[in-house]
Amino acid sequence: MSEKEKYTELVREIFSRDSSPRLACVHSYGCQQNVSDGERIAGMLSEMGCGITNDMNEADIIVLNTCAVRENAELKVFGNIGELKHLKEKNPDLIIAVCGCMAQQEHIAEKIRKTYKQVDIVFGTFALAELPRLIYNVLTERKPQCDISERREDVYEDIPAVRSCRYKAGVSVMYGCNNFCTYCIVPYVRGRERSRTPENIINEITSLVNDGCKEIMLLGQNVNSYGKGLEPKIDFPELLRRINRIDGDFRVRFMSPHPKDATPDFIDAIAECDKICKSIHLPLQSGSDRILKAMNRRYTVEDYMKIVDYARRVMPDISITTDIIVGFPNETYEDFLGTLDVMKRVKFDNIYSFIYSKRRGTKAAEMEDHTSDEDKGKWFRELLALQREISDEYYKRFMGKTMKVLFDGPSRREGYITGKSDEFVIVEAKGTASDIGTFKNVKITETHNWAVCGDITD
Ligand code: SAH
Ligand code: SF4
Ligand code: F3S
Predict the structure, then answer these.
(1) Which of 168, 225, 280, 453 is deepest in the core (most CB within 10 A)?
(2) Which residue blocks in 211-285 are alpha helix, DSSP H?
(3) Is residue 260 exposed (0-12), middle (13-18) or buried (19+ Cβ within 10 Å)?
């Protein structure tokens, strides 16, 4: 029996003395990988005998699974931890745990320990499987627990997930990141790259599909460097081809590939495989070679354009989305104009843009920065306005076409539902709750800069 199993049993035994099952609420912030970790935390809590709830007010155990990627993400978490104080006052037996990327940083763990006495457990990304032991210690020792030590970087295969959605699932294919982009905290809080075996990935996807799952999102901080260190050798294009051979009516997307590893074979695999969505989220970050170098991104604007041109050559309708950072240290207006220029050349379907946020411990945090916050804010608004124009124009290409859509919820418009097409475009149509979680063909009759609308045909 593993340590995790041993403590799971011990906690289960303590909880079983209660008259009704304890309820646990896991709230994840940040990226899909973190959400996926949150589902496994819920899985462990369920193994300990807890019921799972989305309502913190009725929970006996609250886990905040945090993100550290930008300062505002951290501020939000601190605000939420603060708010939990009154719940703890009402229910002194409430167990509050803070974990994830923020907690992995020593200065943050220290701040939580000192300032937020309502928190019982702080544990980092390396200590996921330690949760049963930490809960056991809180129950028996009645004092706060902390585990942010960096362990051997492992892939956990024995932690079950409690998934929040039956028709869409995130499946991690690799963990960690080796890239050390100079602005980014992720490599410091998630450790080095390690990949799951193709067998484990395929088994997980096969069982999800057999359970009726319609969309699989392959997850990794740098998915297309998948396979490093695995024997027998395998790379990401080969993994896509193998997944494509799984029987069933489902589609596959992935997040995020890195441009430096986007080989022609990677593009060919997307083009060849009918289950792989014809959409790529390919983070550009900046359209200035000088800034890309300072960011340690290891590609130039022309390298990036070559990938885009090749992808469009083999898949003319492919949708390309991206991440952009505005205001990296000492970015000039000329650098920024380079970014606008690439946006006009590529015509992204959508961009996720962020104002640079200084992260303690990263290389960029040590760089001098003479660009004012005012300029950064002005440029950011300019970028958003340009993208609105581009999407407005570019979404018109879908007018009159039929798109395959997986509907996932009601729209704000009465009587309408919303979902995503294979191209990852938001699609709205008149529909009912019974259409949710199923694929439908929609003939597009209206396009906007944020979505398209149409009628369900079959
Ligand atoms: N591994 C993924 C991205 C992870 S973080 C990749 O490389 O694409 C998601 C996005 O957050 C990044 O693409 C970047 O645009 C943004 N980001 C990361 N660190 C940031 C920082 N310090 N300030 C502002 N944006 C940041
Ligand atoms: Fe961060 Fe760069 Fe790694 Fe993405 S590739 S997680 S931006 S270091
Ligand atoms: Fe945030 Fe950690 Fe993901 S820092 S973006 S939750 S890997």
Answers:
(1) 280
(2) 236-244, 264-272
(3) middle
C-alpha span between 292 and 259 (Å, rounded): 12
What does the pLDDT look like over 99-120, one tens digit per residue? 999 999 999 999 999 999 999 9
Rounded to 10 degrees, the C-alpha dihedral 162/165/166/172 comes to -60
| Model confidence, pTM | 0.96
CB 99 within 8 A of CB 85: no
Q: How far is the CA of 430 from the centre of ligand 3 (A)?
A: 36
Which numbered atom of ligand 3 lies nearest the CA of 69?
Answer: 4
CB atoms within 10 A of CB 234: 16
Is the predicted pLDDT of residue 217 greater than 90, yes or no? yes
Q: 280 in ligand 1 pocket by Cβ < 6 Å?
A: no
Q: List CB contacts of 375: < 8 A, sequence separation 6 or more.
A: 327, 333
Q: Over the stretch 139-150, which tens digit does the pLDDT of each residue have?
A: 999 999 999 998
Residue whose CA lies nearest to ligand 3 atom number 1: 67
* CA dihedral over 338, 341, 345, 351, signed as positive or negative: positive
Assess whether the C-beta atom of 190 lies below 6 angstroms from ligand 2. Answer: no
Q: Report the DSSP pairing between strands 350-355 and 402-410.
A: unpaired
In angstroms, the CA 104 to CA 194 distance is 18
Q: What atom in ligand 2 is closest to the CA of residue 285?
A: 7
DSSP 258: -
Note whether 322 and 281 are within 8 A (CB).
yes
Q: Would you state the pLDDT for residue 76? A: 95
Instruction: Please indicate whether residue 178, judged by its CB atom, sits closer than 6 Å to ligand 2.
Output: no
Residue 43: strand, helix, or coil: helix
Find the residues whose C-beta lies inside 6 A of ligand 3: 30-31, 33-34, 67-69, 101, 185-186, 189-190
- Strand 319-326 to 350-355 pairing: parallel
CB 447 within 8 A of CB 400: no
